[in-house]
Amino acid sequence: MKNAIILCCLLIALVVNSCQPAGGSDLQAQKDLIFQANEELLNLGNFDYADEVFTDNYRDTGPEAIKKMAKDLRGIFPDLQVKIDPIIAEGDMTGWRRIHTGTHQGTIMGFPPTGKKITWESVILSRYENGKIVEEWGQSDLLEVLQNASEPPNDPEQVIAVVQSAMDALNDKNAEAYLAHSHPAHTRFLPTGPTLFTQEMTVDEMTDDFENGLEFDMQLEEPRVAFHGNTAIVTGYQTGTNRFPNGQVVDGRRKYTSVMAWEAGKWQTVHLHISKVSQ
């Protein structure tokens, strides 16, 4: 609705402010240029096509700014596709709406990738000079869409499923699957000693540990989840037997706390705290 109102205002401005008369063929050419420019630049990634569309003094930057914008956008949304509807031309102005759809795979406007396919709209008013675009004004709802897409799903069952999946990966000696649930900089406090582990683990290192006797047979009991913005805290109990390469065995029932962060479109373990065996 917001963009529809903005489009109406732009179109009113288009009609009121158009002072350069243009024939029907010229107006159609302006529309065709918009369609072709969006197809080449955003749908196909033909960035040099900007030289055919924008004047050298376009917004005091020339076509290079458009090329960078298109490259950045297609880098962040690799499967980006756009369509134009509606489009209205009057005099030396064209008002149009662009609908974008793509999978959010890179950081934009401060938002890290969510991995979600999103759709947003822009409304744009373009002014022509000698058959090319020399100025543009626009408005987009991308910020609002990104804010909504980045909101963590506050679903306790989903968070518990991630924790259980990580435990299952350890039980199965699957280092790659376990680390996929962990933030690269996550920390760990384990019942094997008083040390807070902060060193980043790698798949090869964990695989070596499994080959040297690291073994888990764990279950999660009585899990509870509390949400605090983009963070979820999971508490409960861990049961079963853990065997470590140094020969140490941890058995019984342990208090379990996991701090999870919503980042890059998924819940990741930031800190894991397992208590000493409870008496």
Automatic annotation (TrEMBL):
Carries keyword Nucleotide-binding?
no
* PANTHER family, per database record: ESTER CYCLASE (PTHR38436:SF1), POLYKETIDE CYCLASE SNOAL-LIKE DOMAIN (PTHR38436)
Highest taxon of source = Bacteria
Q: What keywords does the record list, in alphabetical order? A: Signal
Q: What is this protein identified as?
A: DUF4440 domain-containing protein
Q: Which positions carry the signal peptide feature in this UniProt record?
A: 1-24
Gene3D superfamilies reported for this sequence: 3.10.450.50
Extract the SUPFAM superfamilies matched here: NTF2-like
Domain DUF4440 intervals = 160-268
**Which Pfam families does the record cross-reference, listed alphabetically?**
DUF4440 (PF14534), SnoaL (PF07366)
Q: Which GO terms describe its biological process?
A: polyketide metabolic process
